[in-house]
Amino acid sequence: MKHFKFWHKCFVFTVFFSSSLAANAGTFEDFFSAAKLDNESVMVGLTLRGFDLNTVDPRGDSALLIAVREGSRKVALFLLEQPSVKVEARNPKGESPLMLAALKGDLDMARRLIQRKAEVNKPGWTALHYAASNTTQASQEMVRLLLEHHAYIDAESPNRTTPLMMAAHYGHPAVVKLLLEEGADPLLRNEQGLTAIDFARRGERQESADLIAAFVRRKRPTGTW
In angstroms, rounded to a whole number, what is the distance separating the alpha carbons of residues 167 and 208? Predict the structure, then answer.
């Protein structure tokens, strides 16, 4: 009889533990699905149940980062209202929610993240690098916003690429012009020895290359004869 009770308890514990694992797995999947699909009601329900809102998925992405990346606005705004949510939680690539908002050109989201003390400056790739890579003219406003919040204009990535270089190769010529006017140094070189004008030429961005070349010419001191 004692053996029966023992095995019965083991069976009950195993069933309970297995059910708990299945429930937790379902909760985990629901959490990240809600972040991707902008399902605010599911996110609110999980929050009320005490789910850790800073949990990361197998790739190391937080729910806030996913929501910003996927354009899940309702979920992103809800998460930003939760004091426990870490707005600076970065994925293994070093990307933060602010960086992705900057890349997407989501000005309102960037403002809200900055209000929550998201870091505008950090070592390595920065939000300004990402903003400068946006191909639309609207990226000017994002760049201005970041500069207003003291983004370092000549921030260097791990290979010493600057925001101006990114704008020259990928971004809009208006952003190249703005960065130059705000003091970006067009003569800096990355680890490969390339300047911003080299980036523009490699990206076949003739307008940006011309803007940089004209700026450099204006800044050269005129000789006296």
Answer: 8
Domain hosting 168: range is: 120-225
Nearest to 93 by CA among 53, 129, 141, 117: 129
Is the distance from CB of 126 to CB of 119 less than 8 angstroms?
no
Question: Residue 100 contacts by C-beta under 8 Å, 6 or more apart in sequence?
Answer: 65, 68, 69, 130
Q: Are residues 12 and 84 in the same domain?
A: yes
Calculate the alpha carbon distances from 120 to 148, 177, 182 in Å.
10, 21, 17
What is the rounded distance in angstroms from the CA atom of residue 65 to the CA atom of residue 86?
A: 10
- 139 and 105 in contact (C-beta within 8 Å)? yes
Q: What CATH number is associated with residue 87? A: 1.25.40.20
State how many domains the chain has. Answer: 2
Provide the sign of the torsion angle of the four alpha carbons 117, 120, 123, 124, taken in this order: positive
Residue 103 lies in a domain: no
Predicted TM-score of the model (pTM): 0.85
Three-state SS for 59? coil
Q: What is the DSSP letter of 62?
A: B
CA atoms lying within 13 Å on the CB side of residue 199:
30
- Over the stretch 20-75, which tens digit does the pLDDT of each residue have? 434 455 799 999 999 999 999 999 999 999 999 999 999 999 999 999 999 999 99
Nearest to 169 by CA among 139, 131, 209, 122: 209
